[in-house]
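Hi support team,

I've been running sequence recovery on a batch of backbones for a student project. Most finish fine, but this one hangs at about 90% for roughly twenty minutes before it completes. I'm not sure whether the input is malformed or the queue is just slow. I've pasted the structure tokens below so you can try to reproduce it. Let me know if you need the job ID as well.

Thanks,
M.K.
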């Protein structure tokens, strides 16, 4: 039986393109132009998936999402949004949307997203029909809709341990780098769990849809894979679980829901990353800088570890725009971002502060260490020849101000102010220089040409 899809978009061309794309895939498609027509269509007959634009006359896609979920909590909703409107996409994911797609929408992406929604809906329907799986179904729903990893991981692991009667268990999930790592354990202390996880990873083979048995540290574990669309999202290692077929069917059901939850977490993380990225350079933006400074100040107060801030301003950048044009100037700013990324560690934070100003937050770094990094950045910019792809060889220099917490400041406004003032001293002197902030009123030059 064909799945029924409701398209909601006030753009007639978009409605036709989406309808043709999904119709060719074998779905039954109804298209409407606004929220009232969507409500009327939902009243008239049930749908499996709603695909709605974010911006609609009189309301928005979030209203359509709420209306559809109120009528049928199990309906799947896909939101279509523009790149510059990712905040509502975050709210939609948290409100129960299954996915979001960024315009322009490729037919393959739309078909894949709808197929996943239908697979999810079918999975939930099949298991909901089994009354003795009602409790299991509710647990799976909680897992699939949990977007808080601090709640999801222990909840999922506890459910799997209860389903299989395991003596202890480990849960591995993919981190931002795509590698599997320990995220939760039950029945094992932290150092021991870390050791087991490290030793187990090389023994885990590719997922073939079945559980596999491994021996780690003299104990027997069975690996249960949480897989979505052919990709392993996580692995649960269970010590001495039951071999009852019904219990394993329940555990595999939960693992599929865990995979959906992990996939949703990843998608949500991607959306939130867009909120905190600068559109041009793809560095973090000012909004993210404030989060990082709050985090580093809290960490420093708890651990005593210092951190430092570098404030950068390009020398005579206006000349680049005046001579070569603003498009060339924008490309140069992107090259600067690349040099910054190459000059700092993965856990440091590079930010485009605005215009031709940048900020770098160096974790666990005192003034001496920050000065070395600043000098490395200054030298790399001075020696680099920009806009080579445009057939040019533009030279540029930078002034950098350095301030450290808690040496120079005790709050985020002050550390930004001190590093900015140190940079400005460089602007007033020789330029192409690194200045270190000093209290109470002046900054000391640290390097220069």
């Amino acid at each position: 039986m064909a799945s029924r899809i409701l398209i909601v978009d006030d753009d007639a061309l978009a409605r036709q393109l989406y309808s043709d794309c999904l119709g060719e895939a074998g779905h039954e498609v109804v298209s409407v132009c606004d929220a009232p027509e969507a409500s009327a269509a939902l009243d008239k007959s049930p749908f499996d998936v709603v695909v709605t634009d974010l911006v609609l006359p009189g309301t928005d896609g979030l209203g359509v999402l709420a209306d559809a979920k109120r009528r049928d909590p199990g309906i799947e909703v896909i939101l279509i949004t523009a790149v510059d409107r990712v905040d509502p996409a975050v709210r939609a994911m948290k409100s129960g949307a299954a996915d979001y797609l960024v315009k322009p929408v490729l037919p393959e992406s739309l078909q894949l997203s709808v197929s996943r929604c239908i697979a999810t809906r079918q999975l939930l329907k099949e298991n909901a029909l089994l009354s003795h799986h009602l409790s299991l179904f509710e647990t799976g729903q909680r897992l699939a809709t949990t977007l808080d990893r601090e709640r999801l991981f222990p909840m999922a692991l506890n459910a799997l341990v209860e389903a299989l009667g395991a003596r202890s268990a480990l849960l591995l999930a993919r981190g931002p780098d795509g590698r599997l790592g320990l995220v939760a354990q039950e029945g094992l202390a932290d150092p021991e769990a870390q050791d087991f996880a490290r030793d187990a990873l090389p023994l885990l083979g590719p997922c073939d849809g079945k559980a596999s048995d491994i021996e780690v540290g003299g104990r027997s574990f069975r690996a249960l894979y949480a897989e979505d669309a052919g990709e392993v999202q996580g692995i649960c290692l269970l010590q001495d679980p039951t071999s009852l077929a019904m219990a394993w069917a329940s555990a595999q059901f939960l693992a599929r829901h865990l995979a959906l939850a992990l996939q949703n977490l990843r998608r949500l993380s991607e959306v939130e990353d867009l909120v905190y990225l600068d559109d041009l350079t793809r560095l973090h933006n000012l909004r993210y800088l404030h989060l990082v400074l709050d985090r580093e100040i809290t960490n420093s107060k708890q651990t005593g570890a210092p951190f430092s801030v570098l404030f950068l301003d390009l020398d005579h950048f206006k000349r680049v725009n005046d001579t070569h044009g603003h498009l060339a100037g924008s490309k140069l700013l992107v090259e600067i971002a690349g040099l910054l990324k190459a000059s700092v560690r993965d856990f440091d934070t590079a930010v485009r502060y605005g215009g031709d100003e940048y900020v770098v937050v160096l974790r666990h770094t005192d003034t001496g260490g920050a000065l070395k990094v600043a000098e490395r950045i200054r030298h790399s910019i001075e020696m680099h020849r920009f806009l080579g792809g445009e057939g040019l060889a533009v030279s540029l220099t930078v002034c950098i101000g350095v301030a450290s917490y808690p040496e120079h400041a005790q709050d985020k406004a002050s550390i930004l102010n001190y590093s900015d003032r140190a940079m400005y001293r460089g602007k007033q002197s020789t330029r192409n220089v690194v200045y270190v902030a000093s209290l109470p009123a002046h900054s000391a030059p640290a390097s220069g040409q």
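--
Follow-up from support: It reproduced on our side and the slowdown came from queue contention, not your input. The chain has three domains: 4-127, 132-264, 286-448. No action needed from you.
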